[in-house]
Amino acid sequence: MRRNLWVFLIITFLALGWAGRASAQQPTPAPDDVNRIARQLYCPVCENTPLDVCPTQACAQWRALIGDKLAAGWTDDQIKQYFVEQYGARVLAEPPVPLVYIVPPILLLIGIFILYRTLISMRRKPAAIQAEPSAPSTTAGDDQYLRRVEEELKKRN
Amino acid sequence: MVADFGYGVLVITFLLAIYSIFAALVGHLRKSQKWVESARLAMLLTFPGVTLGVLSVITLLVTNQYNIAFVYEVSERAMPLYLKITALWGGQSGSLLFWGWLMAAFAFAATLRNWSRDREFLPWVIIVTSLTLAFFIGLVIFYENPFARYWQTAAGDVISAMFRPASSIPFTPDDGRGLNPLLRHPGMIIHPPMLYLGFVSFVIPFAFAIASLVTGRTDDRWIRITRRWTLVAWLFLTCGLVLGSRWAYDVLGWGGFWGWDPVEIAAFMPWLTGTAFLHSVMIQEKRGMLKHWTMILVILTYDLVIFGTFLTRSGVLSSVHAFAQSAIGPAFFIFIGLTLVGSLGLLFYRWADLKSEAQMTSLLSRESFFLLNNLLFMGILVICFWGVIFPLLSEASGVIGQVFPSLANVFTGQKVTVGPPFYERTTGPLFAALVLLMGIAPLSAWGYRTVRSFQLSRWIALASAALTAISLYLLGLHDWVMLGILTLTAFVFVVAVVEFRRIVWPSALIAVLVSLGLFFLGVHQWQALIAFGAGAFTIATTLYEYWRAISARARAQQENFFLALWRLVGRNRRRYGGYMIHLAIVLMAVGIIGIGVFQTQTQRSLAINQSIELDGYTIRYDSLAQFPYPDGRTVTRAVMSIFKDGQFLQEVYPRVDTYPSGETMTIPGLRSTLQDDVYIVLVNWEGVTSQVAPFKIYHNPLVNWLWIGALLLILGSFVAAWPDKDPDYAPARVRSLQQAAYQPGD
After folding, report:
1. pLDDT on residue B296
2. For position A148, what pLDDT does the model report?
3. Per-residue pLDDT reduced to its tens digit, B395-444
4. Is residue A110 assigned to a domain?
5. Residue of A101, A111, A132 with shortest CB distance to B379
6. Is residue A78 in some structural domain?
7. What own/partner pairs with CB < 8 Å and gap ≥ 24 does B100-103 have?
8. Listed residue (B412, B294, B239, B11) closest to A88, CA to CA
9. DSSP per position, B74-139
């Protein structure tokens, strides 16, 4: 029993030591990796400034924080989530609410529908009142000229 | 003294504007020319009035009168003269006054025109322009007074007020705070005035539209009068946007030119409706159709212009442009609401009078394509508007969550940011569709009647659309909105190609070859392949349109190529200027895709003589120097050498300017070629020492084509808007003859 405890303690000690060495060996993350995440975040204090280009001291510290978290093995999403918990959803470049993506396509579909109805209704008007002569592409010069004159007269009236 | 004079003149101008509204109304109701003439004279007088007000502010700025609150806030002794003058539009009250001044100038010019044939429009054009002017001058007088002075009260507080508060003494600071460093740039001379000119000149077409609605003269006369105004307004607005982008690219140090900032969008929205309006106007002129729609567009443009000014000026949205914040929001809101409801009400009142004069002859007629174009522009507008107001809605919706606790999880009221990813994903496909449409639409003649039935093209198009959807899905596009829009685009494209195959197949072939060629050259981003293909298609068809008309003319008139081109464009400036603008837009799209899809960046700290590599470029850090500038700022400047394949190309000098106030500006070092830009930022905020400095390098392929396209666009707009003899004065027969002879494609 006691021997087991000793073995356990030694293993734990070694594991801790190994883990400590491993984390000490973690290279400092490259600025490019920090920027990759910072680009997806907005500065929590400045107005509408992405975190990767924000020149304030506070933002430099936030970028350093991202670097620390990366070194500690956090994933991109975990870091982003951490910032959301600290400063609210407004630090995300993209709103977390799907509503923002739902409305534009719905409106676009409504627009397409209205356009379609307009085109159909414009076509359905009785052909009888169509005063304008049709415009075959092979018309000789004279016809073309007459058509122009008629169009002109119509515009003047 | 000067301040009192300026304020007094503005009050008089305000009263003049109010009087001209009143007199014009009386003149309209009593059908009295005398009253209208009186209103017209009052309107004309407002321009010299506001000019004196503006000159007073400039005098105060140039003579360093820091007892004036506005002068203290935007100016300082060390600033160069040009910045002291341009500081007029560097702060809230000055920029509102500047807006009013441009408005007065345009109203002045519009009032001076020959009104003999449009007498009935005059009172209403006066009323609309005077109302807008009175609103802005009123804001300046009552809310945001650039002439307010500093006073020290008995308690020792410093307050700003126009007139001396009881028991206070004048207070004069020694020096001003100086202009925001972002605004200390030669771009300041031209970008805000251009944008404001674009904003203001759209008021004139709106005024004529309202006049035609009120008077019931609903033919297209108002459009014929204002079409040059509209083109000029559009050109100014476009220039304003492009200049702003270039300024951001040169000064902001963000590596890009457009950040989907709410204020950028605020200026972009009237551009969208204005562009849709320019197109819709053409259909109304040529075919007498879409009259309601044209009216809605001009009304929307006007109110978006006011809304844009409001967003820039009120600070309601957080943005890099919100250097001006105040309580003028409610006034703007009420004005926008009233004008929108009033003009839409007028439109519904005249709804029946605005019937179409012609019918759509085919689903593939030019009108349909114009409608589709309008739909796309409106789609982009809706996305922009939605993105801008969504943060406000999200925050306000918290009230619902509070009232109904069960919905508190849905309506949390949290503050959110809508950034570039949203706009890029949602507007991207619509922009691509617009580029394609530019290639297709000019091919269909007005009211084109398809000889062939729709059968063949419908089945081929359906098949290709399905194929597109499946292959894009397999290629890894799983965004349903984008997939849907691209599939729809493919459908329209194939229908057009099949229907107009005799003229369109060479362009379609060129487009496919360009895309395939790029693919084999190693370009594998599908967005770029689609966009470059669409661009190639549009360029090919547009050039083909030119060529077809030129060769027909050269044959018929026995002219050489260049003479034929010159005369052809001269005969129909609007059309060929328009095509030139289309080509320009494609070039700009190439630049935007280049930087948007292919931009790469990297950041590293470098010791002297160390290098960093990016996309085949080697950039070496040579030296760093720090020196003071006469205007008080300290410049920290690095010298960098750019190499490619071991070959020295150029030295560039990224720098950081530190102002006495502690604010800094990051000016990139730039190597710019037709192929790409190398954009180097000295990242001052990460700690620069004489030994080690951090640099951020951006590689921006093709971005120069954006600026080249913009130049072509300006040229095209000039061609389209160049004044010629008023065609309405030419005998109809001569006009018809000219048109019949020289428009083979029409």
Report:
1. 93
2. 61
3. 777 777 777 777 766 677 777 888 888 888 888 888 888 877 777 776 66
4. no
5. A111
6. yes
7. B100/B50, B100/B133, B100/B136, B100/B137, B100/B140, B101/B50, B101/B51, B101/B53, B101/B54, B102/B193, B102/B196, B102/B197, B102/B200, B103/B129, B103/B132, B103/B133, B103/B136, B103/B200, B103/B203
8. B412
9. H--TTS-HHHHHHGGGSSHHHHHHHHHHHHHHHHHHHHHS--TT-GGGHHHHHHHHHHHHHHHHHI
Instruction: Please give the DSSP secondary-structure letter assigned to residue B141.
Output: I
Question: Which chain B residues are closer than 8 Å to A145 by Cβ?
Answer: 736-737, 740
> Number of folded domains in chain A?
1
CA B685 – CA B656 distance, rounded (Å): 10
- Chain A residue whose CA is closest to B256: A53
CB-closest option in A53, A55, A119 to B664: A55
Q: Three-class SS of residue B145?
A: coil
What's the order of all strands across the beta sheet hosting B669-672?
A: B600-607, B692-701, B676-682, B669-672
Task: Identify the helix (H) or strand (E) that includes residue B618.
Answer: strand B617-628
Shortest distance between the Cα of B605 and any Cα of chain A, in A, equals 9
Say which of A31, A55, A125 has its CB closest to residue B603. A31
Q: What distance in Å separates the CA atoms of residue B312 and residue B196, rounded to the nearest whole number?
A: 11
CATH of the domain at A52: 1.10.8.640
Tell me, yes or no, whether A98 lies in a domain.
Answer: no
Count of CA atoms in the C-beta half-sphere (13 A) of B206: 34
Instruction: For residue B342, give every residue at least 6 positions away whose Cβ sits within 8 Å of its Cβ, in sequence order, or none.
Output: none
pLDDT in tens, B46-93: 999 999 999 999 999 999 989 999 999 888 888 888 889 989 988 888
Query: Is the Cβ pair B416, A90 closer than 8 Å?
Result: yes
* Strand pairing report for B611-614 and B617-628: antiparallel
In a domain, A156, yes or no: no
Whole-angstrom Cα distance, residue B281 to residue B224? 9
Of A35, A107, A130, the CB nearest to B359: A130
Shortest distance, CA A63 to any CA of chain B (angstroms): 10
ipTM of the complex: 0.72
Total-model pTM: 0.82
Q: Residues of A numbered 76-105 whose beta carbons fall under 8 angstroms of chain B's beta carbons: which are they?
A: 88-97, 100-101, 103-105
The domain of A86 spans: 25-91
- Chain A nearest CA to B161, separation (Å): 29
Closest-CA distance, A12 to chain B, in angstroms, reads: 39
Structure tokens at B244: 């702003």
Of B572, B616, B592, B580, residue with least CA distance to B722: B572
Residue B480: pLDDT band (50, 70, 90) is low
How far apart (Å, rounded) are the C-alpha atoms in residues B657 and B600? 26
What domains, with CATH codes, occur in chain B?
Answer: 1-184 (no CATH), 186-353 (1.20.120), 381-571 (no CATH), 599-705 (no CATH)
